[in-house]
Amino acid sequence: MDLHRSTMNVIAGIVCLGLVIVPSLYAWFNIAGSWDPYSNTKNLKVAVANTDEGYTSDLMPLSINVGDKVTSALRENDQIGWLITSEQDALEGVRSGQYYAAVIIPPNFSRDLLGMLSADPHTSALDFYVNEKENAIANVVTSKASSALKNQIDTTFAQTVSSVGSSVLGDLGSYLGSDEMTQLANRIVASLDHTQQTLTSTAANVKSYGALVSSAKSLVEGSAGLVGTEKNSTSDLQDALNGASSGVGSLKDALGSASSTVSDALTSGSDSLDSIKDSIDSVFDKAGSSTTQVANDLESIAGTLNGRKEAVDALLGGFTAQRDQLQELRDRLEDEYNQDNQLTAAERAVLRSLDRALEASERALASLSAASQSLEELGAEISQMAQELKDGTTSAADAKAKLEGLVEGSKTSLDSAKGTFNDDVAPSLTSLSEAITQSADDAGALKGGLDSTLQALAVTGDSAAQDLESIQEALDKVSGDLNGASEDVSTLKERLAAAVASQDVESIRAILAEDPQELSQFLSAPVDLKRVAVFPVANNGSAMAPMYNSLALWVGAIILVVMLKVEPSKKEEAQLGGLTLTQAYLGRLGIFLVLATLQAALLCAGDLFYLQIQCEHVGLMFLTCILVSLVFTNITYALTVSFGDVGKALAVILMVIQIAGAGGSFPVQMLPAPFQAVYPFLPFVQSMQLMRGCIGGIYGNDFVVHLLGLLGFLAPALILGLVLRRPLVRLNHWIEHQLASTKVM
After folding, report:
1. Which residue among 174, 386, 494, 705 is the one 20 to 30 A from 53 at the CA level?
2. Confidence (pLDDT) at 149
């Protein structure tokens, strides 16, 4: 219905057409304006003022003014708008904005530049003034090596100084007399000797770097074996832990199954002592009739006690063997763990559990040993009492009292051993088994992670070895070039030294006039930098297109919510028979999405076929622009429906934040910390990354990742528009009523 009404009304159709066109114009003008700004550097006015006083040394009566030669060379250079003027006019022009910058050649420029002819050389300098107020990037242009203008100035001066140096040395060769020529030649020979030594030393250093890279390459190749060893070590550690866990588990199970038997045995021993005590009481109760019979009964009881002692000794031997097994297990695990520099939490837990189990075993052994000793003493005492009764050296009452005390002590020892086992040994072994099982599980997970990591390291190592081989070859080539330059300088030095030794002034003059270019390298030595573009972009306009396209589509979405009604009127709702909030939201959203699609299609078509920006993936570029426009429209529509005019303001604020913080002009790493913090949550980030991939080329699965990131903004927009806005309906109506009551807003 919305589309039908819009197309049936001429004025509405014209407005809709304007809504589609305006965002594209915004993007096209900005892209065209930033298409290739550095091609027009010749229009930048840079003033040049020469105050050079020239140079005349005691060695040569010739006056040389390098500043004049520099200005002459700059007049012929059309890459920058050089204007030769006075120092006062240059500085005033920079302050007033008439000139973008000014270069002042100082009075001592020639003296410092030709300082190589003196024993106290100085570095020559040019004064460069910039009016940073005139342009936002003026400071960047002059202080950063990446600035095209600054590089051009450096290159121009380097070439000019090199040319000046050559002509100056030619003039020297033609002018100087024999004495001056000989002195100059001697100084040049000394300088050439120093230069040759420097070149040779540098070549040796570069050669050493090549050898170091070669060693690194061997180290990387050898790391494959180390990776395999680490994988085997990880497997061995896991196997050891699994074996330890199984061993302790078996030990725990064995003790668990024997627990009731051991406990029953100790309980039986304790109960038997109660029976023995009752037997002793019974024996002495009938002692009046026959002392011999009492003695015989006591000897029988002593025999029973010896049997109980043997049972306790058997338990003592079993616990001793178990203690030894635990100690052996601890030693083995400690050896395995010590192969690493640092123990993990799980490994420390295993060793602590083993220590507690060993301590509990020692206490159990001490208790069993005390019980065995007590039973032995009790048996011996009963036998002795039986003999004393036979001999008549003790009374039955004394014997009974003494034996009852000994029986009670033995019973206490057996009960203590039983308590130590039940309350100390068994729980410590259970804790030990659990700790080792957890450590084995951790080792298994560690092994899985290390396997994948070591596999990746193996692949990376192969790639690194290839890169190191390329670096080694490059360093060897540089070393060879430096050695070649050293040989050339050495040859020139030897020729000049031979001419000086022979006092052949004409030969000296011929050498100076013959090779001025080599000697001029003392004055200027520009470095050639080879720039290799990865995912090259043809021009600055294409590089800026993702930023301006994203901004234009967001502006288009804002224009839509400003010009179109986001909610049906009450009359429309009545005609449609009443609408739910969801139906009203989705129904009106339709015309917004149609216009947003047309905006994106027109913008992309103009970029590609009118401006002809670079684009490696035309189809994906159209798809990206349309999806970006639909997502942006959903966001601004949800904000406006939910918050009314406040939502429109929020959409504008969000646009401003994204212009500054989405990394469109500067890398995000160069932005202030608050912008870096919100960077991942800005829709512009995903849209620009998608468009950059379409323009320059796509790496791996980056396109899919950023596409999912862009579509992820649909979810919060729909949740806000369909769910969260319901409680805000009355508040929005109240705000609109208050604004309307002002008769202004």
Report:
1. 174
2. 37
Which residue ranges make up each domain of the chain? 2-33+535-741, 44-175, 223-461
Alpha-carbon distance of 478 to 473, in angstroms, equals 9
Computed over its alpha carbons, how large is the radius of gyration of the chain? 48
**All residues at 6 or more sequence positions from 193 whose CB lies less than 8 Å from its CB, including other chains:** 493
3-state secondary structure (DSSP) of residue 48:
strand
Query: For 541-596, what is each residue's pLDDT tens digit?
Result: 999 999 999 999 999 999 999 999 888 766 766 666 777 888 888 988 999 999 99
What lies within 8 Å, CB to CB, of 648 at 6+ separation is 558, 561, 562, 636, 639, 640
Q: Which two tokens stand for residue 314?
A: 């058997």
Q: How far is CA 233 from CA 332, 440, 558, in A?
A: 15, 14, 62
Three-state DSSP class for residue 578 = coil
State the amino acid at position 487 in one-letter form.
Answer: E
* Environment class of 575 (CB within 10 Å of its CB; exposed 0-12, middle 13-18, buried 19+): exposed
**Given this model, what pLDDT does residue 594 score?**
94
The size of the chain, in residues, is 745
User: For 613-658, how does the pLDDT look when each residue is reduced to its tens digit (9 = 90+)?
Assistant: 999 999 999 999 999 999 999 999 999 999 888 899 999 999 999 9
**CATH classification of 44-175, choosing from 2.60.40, 3.40.190, 3.30.890, 1.10.20?**
3.40.190
Q: What is the three-class DSSP state of 616?
A: coil
pLDDT in tens, 126-142: 788 887 776 665 455 44
Q: In what order do the strands lie in the sheet with 127-130?
A: 81-85, 45-50, 101-105, 127-130
3-class SS at 82? Answer: strand
Q: Report residue 632 as tokens.
A: 């942006």
Question: Could you tell me which of 346, 272, 280, 262 has the C-alpha nearest to residue 308?
Answer: 272
Q: Which tokens is 16 given?
A: 């809709």
**Three-state DSSP class for residue 260:** helix
Q: What are phi and psi of 99, to 5 degrees?
A: -115, 145
**Residue 556: partners with Cβ closer than 8 Å, 6 or more residues away:** 19, 22, 23, 596, 599, 629, 632, 633
Bridge-based pairing of strands 81-85 and 45-50 is parallel
User: What average pLDDT score do residues 209-221 get?
Assistant: 59
* DSSP-assigned states of every residue in 388-453: HHHHT-S-HHHHHHHHHHHHHHHHHHHHHHHHHIIIIIHHHHHHHHHHHHHHHHHHHHHHHHHHHH
Reported pTM:
0.50
- 81: phi then psi, degrees, rounded to nearest 5: -80, 75
Q: With CA atoms as reference, report the closest residue to 200 among 522, 481, 492, 528.
A: 481
* Nearest residue to 651 via CA among 562, 735, 712: 562
CB atoms within 10 A of CB 293: 13
**380 vs 367: CA distance, rounded Å:** 20
- For residue 568, the Cα-to-chain-centroid distance in whole angstroms is 51
Backbone angles phi, psi at 82, to 5 degrees: -70, 135
CA distance 113 to 522: 9
Nearest to residue 717, comparing CAs of 551, 531, 589?
589
Query: Which of these, 159, 165, 130, 164, lies nearest to 147 by C-alpha position?
Result: 130
